[in-house]
Amino acid sequence: MADKHSEFPAFTQVGSVDVDAGCIWVGDPCYVLKDADEARPKDLGDNWHDICKRFFTRSGYDARSSDFQVYARRRDQALFQTPEFEALMAEKPRGEDFDARSWEVKKAFYEKYDAENPFKSDKIDTGVANFTHDGGHGGMGLMLSTYMGDGTYPVYVEYGEDNRPRRVLIDFD
Known about the structure:
- This protein is of the alpha+beta class and 173 residues long.
- The protein has helices spanning 48-58, 61-80, 83-90, 98-113; strands at 11-19, 23-26, 128-132, 138-145, 151-159, 165-170.
- The strands form 2 sheets. A 3-stranded antiparallel beta sheet has the order 1-5-6, with no helix packed on it. Strands 2-4-3 form a 3-stranded antiparallel beta sheet, with helices on one face.
- The chain is elongated and about 65 Å long.
- The protein starts with 10 loop residues before the first strand and ends with a strand.
- The mean pLDDT is 84.
């Protein structure tokens, strides 16, 4: 299943991974998937909501998301006051291509406005949260944000000596 057109020439595409939570777990399943009589690791919490809450808090996502919402509202308020957007909104009736033209006006404005976007280089949201074993040491696993949300992402492996996997790459971009 090699991807001949891969941007990663040392890697071979071996499959894909579906994401519905906007994040992915990386870790040994024996630490997470317990038998019915075994307690779930404490750091994972009691349910899916608990693990997501821990991830989004630890990775900085919650803080960054709140800050971005404020930023995005300011950006849209500035957009609505541009002559290009006002002219577009004043059109009566709006033609079939209104949505496409509206998107082009927004896209051009966002590109210019976002050139100084503090969220592009901000390190508040690392996109990563490490989880600990019940003994308190790290290494149980970690979660990564895809930043692209839901989707199917290709998975690549780089093979080393004896055809053993050396590195795994999940291409979220």
